[in-house]
Design brief:
There is one protein chain. This protein has 188 residues and is an alpha/beta fold. 36% of the residues lie in helices and 14% in strands. Helix 4 runs parallel beside helix 5.
């Protein structure tokens, strides 16, 4: 069964992008497999992927709202296939824009009937803005709890990244802090 997502794009001077898929999704492998480079682990993960593809119990019935934050246009790479043209460090989402978007979305719960939400972070390279992402995720969790929002017990964070900053101390601290939030199983 395929997971379908409805997408909301949170824009701040960025092109309107309706579909963004990570390299891991395109290749049909996990981000972990791409980033570790451990061939023994890769072989094990290929076996695990076959099991995952056979699963018939998708997360939350396979239907979720996908809300995407384009946090920066900056990136360390210049990939020919990249959808983002005119990369630069000047165009970054501010905390104020992110907070207003979150407040609006969470205050209109009646408009979002999906039982789950995927909070997606893209760029440029989103991990260049890990401090902003960390602040956004903390605020999301706090507000969903405070509002008793139906997504509080049914959310995931997603990142489309080139992986360059994946092993940085800040990114690893963020992952560790969020991977078992409220006993949820997040996939990083």
């Amino acid at each position: 069964m395929r997971v379908f997502h409805c997408k909301i794009m949170v824009l701040h001077g960025f092109p309107d992008v309706s579909v963004v898929s990570s390299l891991a999704d395109v290749l049909g492998v996990s981000e972990r497999m791409l980033l570790t480079g451990d061939s023994t682990q890769n072989i094990q993960e290929v076996g695990n992927m076959k099991k995952i593809k056979e699963r018939t119990d998708p997360w939350q019935s396979g239907i979720s709202k996908n809300i995407t934050f384009i946090v920066t246009k900056d990136c360390q790479l210049a990939c020919k296939y990249c959808y983002l043209v005119g990369k630069n460090a000047k165009e970054r989402m501010s905390w104020g824009v992110a907070k207003k978007a979150i407040d609006y979305i969470l205050s209109h719960e009646e408009d979002y009937h999906e039982e789950s939400v995927v909070w997606d972070f893209i760029g440029g390279e989103p991990f260049l803005e890990i401090d902003l992402i960390d602040k956004i995720c903390d605020y999301l969790k706090m507000e969903m709890f405070r509002l008793n929002h139906h997504w509080f017990n049914s959310y995931r964070f997603s990142f489309s990244t080139n992986g360059i900053n994946y092993h940085s101390e800040k990114v690893q601290k963020f992952i560790e802090k969020n991977k078992n939030s409220n006993n949820r199983k997040h996939r990083f």
